[in-house]
Amino acid sequence: MKKILIVDDEVNVGLLLSKFLTRNNFEVATANNGARAMELLKSDEYDLVLCDFRLEDTDGREMLVHIKGNYPKTGVIIITGYSDIKMAVELIKMGAYDYITKPLYPDEILNTITKAIETRNALNNDEPVAAITPKPTSAAAKKANFAPEFVPGQSRASRELIRQIELVAPTNYSVIIMGESGTGKESAAKSIHLNSPRRDQPFIAMDCGSLTKELAQSEFFGHEKGSFTGALYTKIGHFEMANGGTLFLDEVGNLSYDIQASLLRTVQERKVKRIGSTKEIDLDVRIIVATNENLQDAIQKGRFREDLFHRFNEFGIYMPALRERGTDIMVLANHFLKMANDELGRGVTAFSPEVEECFMNYRWPGNIREMKNVVRRAALLTEGEEVQMKALPLEISINSKYMSAPQETAAPVSLQSAEQATPKEPKHDLKNAALEAEYDTILKVLREVNFNKTKAAEILKIDRKTLYNKMKAINLGK
Q1: Which of 70, 364, 394, 470 has fewest C-beta within 10 Å?
Q2: CATH 1.10.10.60 is the classification of domain 407-478
Q3: Cis peptide before 103 (omega within 30 of 0)
Q4: Cα separations (Å) of 175 from 178, 181, 290, 312, 432?
C-alpha cells in the first residue's frame, strides 16, 4: 500500500483528503504545519507528499528543498491557490512532480497522484507495479442523486458547487451552507443527504427564521404531555425526528442566544431530552445549517456563539448568486419554463432574444427563487410559443431598457413609454409633469437598491404602504 503525507494548515482540507485517499487504498498521514511534517518524514518513509504552498511556519519552497535534500525518493506535489500558480511552476522546475489548485477536485487529485507514483517507481527503479486504477468517484460510478429542485449547471461556479457536494456528502461532517436568499441552499442540503450513507434515513428541514423564543425549545427537543400549559399531547422534536438522518437548520443566525446554548449542548453530547422528561435519547444526526448572513460578523456583534459556529463549521459551502452563474441563467430559465408548462398545461417553448438578453443583464436580487416566479408568471401571460418582453414584470423589463442605453445619455423612462401607463393628460400638463418626476425618482431609487421596496421606502422617507400606493398609481410594479 502506497503511503502519502498530507501537509496543510487547513484542518478540514487535510481530513477530507485523508478520508478520500484512504477510501482509494492509500495509507495516509496528515500534518498541519512544516515542523510536524518533518517529524513524520524522519520517523517513516513516504511515497509522496502533498504539500500546501502556504503554511503557518514555512512554505512549499522550503519544504521541497528539505524533502529533495533528505528524502530524494519521495515525490512532492504542491497544493496551491490560483494566485500562486507562477510560483508552483517554478517549484516544478526545482523538482516538484506537479501542482494542483484549490478548490480540489477528486478526479484531478487521484490522477495526479497516480501519475506521480508511477513516475517515482520508474525513476527509483522499483519493481514494476500494476498501474493504480483510480476508483470512480460517486459522479462517475453512478449518477449523483440531486434533489429534484436542484438544477446542475455548467458554469465554473456550478461545477465547483457540485464537486463540493460530492466531496463532503459521503462524510459525516457538519456543513455550513452560505449564500444569498433564494440561491437554493436547502436543495444543496438535500443533495448532500441524498449522496450520503444516510440517504435512506429522514431529511428534516427546520426554518429557524420563523421560530419564536418560546416555541424553539419544543420544536428542537420536543415535550411531554402536560409538561407546560398548552402541552396537550407528547411532541417529538426535530432532533428526534431526524435521528439516523440529516437535520437541516435554515437561517440559523436568527436563533436567540439562549437557544444557541441549548443547541450547543445537544450537538456536543449527542443526546436530547424532551421538555418535561428525565429520559435522554441518544442521537446520531448529521447537521447541515444555512445562513444568508456572515456568521463571523454576528459573532463579533455578540449575536452568535463562536463555539456553536465552530461545531457547525466542519465544512463550508458557498452558494453562488444567480448573477455569478453566467450561462446557467438560461439553463435554469428553460428548466423552469418546462416546469411551468407541465403545471399549467401550456405550450410555451422558448424565450425571445430580447428576453434572453434581459435575463442575462438583470442582477436577480431574489436569485433562483425570483427567476422561478418570473418564469411561471411569464408562462401564464404568454400567448403563443415564445415569451416576449411584455410578459415580464415591470422592474425587470425597465431594468433592461436602462441597461441597453448609455448611462450618460439615457433618458428616464416616461409614463408614455410604458404599455399600461396610467396618466392620460397632455405631455406638458402640470399634473402629468409632477407624476413623471415622481415616477422617475421612485424608479431611480428602486434601481439603486435592486428593487428592495423596504430600503427604497427608507431612502424616499415614506412608509412601505405609501410606496406601494404610489407605485400602483403609476403602474410601477407587479
Answers
A1: 70
A2: yes
A3: yes
A4: 10, 18, 8, 6, 56
The grid cell for 8 is: 496543510
Place of cell 455550513: 176
Pair 184, 149: CB distance under 8 Å? yes
Sign of the Cα pseudo-torsion (256, 260, 261, 263, in order): positive
Question: Distance between CA 353 and CA 388 in Å, rounded?
Answer: 9
pLDDT for residue 203: 93
Residue 121 CA neighbour count, 13 Å, CB half: 14
Tell me the sheet residues that pair with 65: none
Q: How far apart are CA 79 and CA 102, in angstroms?
A: 7
CB-based contact 99:78 (threshold 8 Å): yes
Superfamily name and number for 3-123: Response regulator (3.40.50.2300)
Residues 6+ apart with CB under 8 A from 428: none
- Residues with Cβ < 8 Å from 122, sequence gap 6 or more? none
Q: Are 218 and 238 in contact (CB under 8 A)?
A: no
Same fold, 3-123 and 156-320: yes
Fold for 324-392, please state it.
Answer: Helicase, Ruva Protein; domain 3 (1.10.8)
In 3D, which of 4, 165, 174, 184 has the Cα closest to residue 79?
4
Distance CA 335, CA 353 (A): 17
- pLDDT recorded at residue 165: 93
**C-alpha cell of 280?**
435522554
Per domain, the residue ranges of the chain are 3-123, 156-320, 324-392, 407-478
290 strand-pairing partners? 177
Rounded Cα distance between 146 and 151, Å, is: 8
* Helix axes 11-23 and 156-168, enclosed angle (nearest 10): 70
Ranges of residues in the chain whose predicted pLDDT is under 50: 126-142, 402, 404-427, 478
The fold of 156-320 is Rossmann fold (3.40.50)
Q: Which set of grid coordinates corresponds to residue 373?
A: 416566479
457 vs 370: CA distance, rounded Å:
21
For residue 245, the model assigns a pLDDT of: 94
Q: Angle, to 10 degrees, between the axis of helix 34-43 and the axis of helix 60-70?
A: 10
- Would you say the pTM of this structure is higher than 0.70? no
Q: So what's the pLDDT on residue 377?
A: 93
How would you label 166-180 residue by residue, b for 16+ Cβ within 10 Å and e otherwise? Answer: bbbbbbebbbbbbbb
| Residue 384 neighbours by CB distance under 10 Å | 9
pLDDT of residue 6: 94
Strand-pair partners of 52: 79
Q: Answer yes or no: are the C-beta atoms of 381 and 388 closer than 8 Å.
A: no
